[in-house]
Structures are given as C-alpha cells and as structure tokens.
Amino acid sequence: MTASITLPSPAKLNLFLHIVGQRPDGYHELQTLFQFLDYGDDITLTLTPDHPGVRLETPIPGVPDEDNLIIKAALALAQKAPRDPPGVSIALKKRLPMGGGLGGGSSNAATTLLGLNHLWKLNLGLDELAEMGLALGADVPVFVRGHAAFGEGVGEKLTPAHPPEDWFLVLKPDCNINTGKIFSAQALTRDTPRINIAPAFEGDASRYRNDCENVVKTLYPEVSTSMEWLTQFGPARLTGTGACIFGRFPTESATRIIWESKPSGITGFVAKGVNVSPLHQKLTELK
After folding, report:
1. How far apart are CA 230 and CA 237, in angstroms?
2. Which residues belong to the active site?
3. In CATH terms, is domain 1-287 a member of 3.30.230.10?
4. Which residues of the chain have pLDDT under 70?
5. Cis (ω within 30 of 0) for the bond into 243?
6. What is the C-alpha to C-alpha distance for residues 148 and 146, in angstroms, rounded to an integer?
7. For 2-46, how does the pLDDT look when each residue is reduced to its tens digit (9 = 90+)?
8. What is the C-alpha to C-alpha distance for residues 97 and 24, in angstroms, rounded to an integer?
9. Residue-range domain boundaries for the chain
10. Given 106, 202, 249, 284, which residue has the most CB atoms within 10 angstroms?
C-alpha cells in the first residue's frame, strides 16, 4: 500500500513586531511574538517508490517549482537520507493568501520537512530540522518547532511563550506588500527598546506594536482603510509586513458577528489562536 499523509500547514500571527536594530549586513534585528492559528493550508505527501524524485502536483501560479519552498525543503531533506529516499508526490491545498504576513510559504516548508522526516523514517531531531529550515527562511524554524514563541534575531532565536488562545478576525486587503520596500523605507522605526522577557500581554498592551505598520499604511492605503474599519471593534494590528491585519476577540461568536458585518470586497477568515501547532498535534496522533 502506498504511504500517504495529509498534514496541516498553519498560519502564524506576529502578535507584535518590534525592530530593535539593524545589523551590518543590512538585516533587521527583531523582537516578536509568534502564535499559530487553527487555520491554514493542507499538504498531502504520497510516496511513489516507482517514480523517484520530488514532484509538486499543484504548482503555485507565478512561482516556479525551483523557487517553491516546498520543493526546496524536500530536496534539502533528501540530501540527509543515508540512501536515495522513495520518490514523493506533493499536493498543496492553498487557503492562506500569498504575501499576507501569515507565513504560508514558511509553514509549507516546515510541514514538508516534518512530514517527509516521518514518511522517510529519517528520525532527524527538531534542532537539525529547524537549522535546515532557517536556511530556507527566517520564519521556518518556529513552524518546525511548533510552539508559540518569543522570537529574536531575525526571528530565529525562539523562547517558548504562552499568550492567551483568543479568537482572531484576520482580513486580507486587496494589495501585495513588497517586504524589501518596507524594510528599506526611511521612515521605518529601527530603534525600539528591547524587551527582556517573553511577554504574555499582561498590563499595558500599548507597549506592543508592529513597527512596520505606519510605513505599510502610508504606502498601501488599502491596509489603512481595512484597519480603520476593524479598529471600530477593538485594537487592530498588522502581522509581519502585511498585508493581513487582525483583531483579537474573546469568543468565536463575537468574532463571527463582526466578520458578518465586514464591507464587501474584503476577504479574510475567523480562526482561533493556538500555542501548539496543529501540525505537531497531527504528527503526535500519527506516532
């Protein structure tokens, strides 16, 4: 029987994102709080022993296979196998908007690494898989490790955290953010004071913000308009460099009532914040 598994590839939110400095190589030093959502893509991995190699059955429009993090992750993992592993066919069910700041591509890479580590029986540990993930992108390690975390450095230095598992309304304004444009903007704040411990959003929440937000709102009016609407119901914040924005609410019913009242033309979804990744929950069930 052909081995096949379908695994979740969840979204993440940056509950805050502070830029605390800039390194000589141009990369920005960050402090952020990552939390997963119980919403995301699905990836199906099917071993094909009679057909060696890695095949993506569902190419993403505008993304050549050689640039796709799913393919890159699978090929990187295959190099760790003691002998040529069985071929694999990979199918992606895409729900997360591209360029939304939700970590979709990084999550896809992490799901591929952990899923193939399981199917190919490589038994690589999370430390090694996270190191491989970092070579693919700064956000991949948090998805590999699978726990909400306080992130530092470029986002790869992770300390487990336990923010409240609230409900979120996530909106995707109709624009695509150029991350390079945001990080090179002269108006970007780059000197926010460092926080010494992973916060749990106790006390004054106004201490926490997304330092990219003002630049993004200025350059992309669609983000500003969506945020104005969502702010009617409570604080709204950008995730990553956007374009998605989110509001936090205590119950699913309250969140869905607000979702039903959204203006036409805005896409998005309702999801619950979770501190253990749905990917890790699924892999635990498979053991």
Report:
1. 9
2. 12, 139
3. yes
4. 1-2, 197-206
5. yes
6. 7
7. 599 999 999 999 999 999 998 888 889 999 999 999 999 999 999
8. 32
9. 1-287
10. 106
